[in-house]
Amino acid sequence: MMQYTRNPKGKKNFRYGFTMIELLIFIAIFSMVSVVMVPMLYATIETRMRQQTIELVEDNANQALQQIERRIRNAERIIYPVMGSSGSVLVLQMASGSVNPTIIGVQSGVLVVIERDLVRKITSSQVAAMHFIARNTSPSPVTPSVFSSFILSRTIRLQMPHTYTRYFENAALLHPADAPVGDCGCSSASCSGSLMTWYLCSGGSCSERQEIFVCP
Fold it and tell me: Mean per-residue pLDDT for 34-44?
């Protein structure tokens, strides 16, 4: 709407403005557009975050599976679990003393590998790892094999929280050397009461190490 006033010299000054009706119409149109656009915006954001969550879980799983399989194939023998049984921790005898033994399991929601006494995370803290299971599927002591599985999940925290969960599994054969060298007579590893116990060989003597793990 166009309004005008007179200045001291008698000339008209024009000023543009809105009437109350025009303002109410604008507010009504803006409200209707917002009602349509805001849910679409939230849906777009949620779709993008779901896709990012799936990619994050899948990437973590692929990396973990590769690292687990590589260590199994390079192992000399399976220390724990024993042949024909399952456990929530996998302990491998390695030829190199710097990585012997190698222990794989879940610790505080993260899949980790311990090489001798060095702890390495093989999944990100952005995902939750759980239910790691290792099954000693060796048909005989000379043909060792392992089946391992675990679950990864991540929760999207939006208006409607959504959790993406997936189960992963892998089977691998060991390719031990003809004459294993990693065993120096230390006691076998054990896992009980949420406590993993193993022994390191150094200078012909055995020293005990312990870590908190998800044990049966």
Answer: 65
